[in-house]
Design brief:
single chain; mainly beta; two-stranded antiparallel ribbon; elongated
Amino acid sequence: MPIFEFRCAACGEIFEKLFMDSDEQVDITCPQCSAESIERVVSRTNFAIGAGPGSNQPRITAKSCGDSSQCMTLDLPGHVK
């Protein structure tokens, strides 16, 4: 089930549409202004195959972020640059 991004030529609104089949033919209108002048946007993608060394487990790092507050960072497994 592909999700496609579209931009309204009238108001510039960018929105997504889920298709049940990649060959599905439907009339698409802008959810913001109901215009029918829609163009498909090629979305930027970012993915990596495999994980970098030592990045297979989530890691939580706690640190002080001020006088009485504490911040946390959650590092999720994935590609390491």
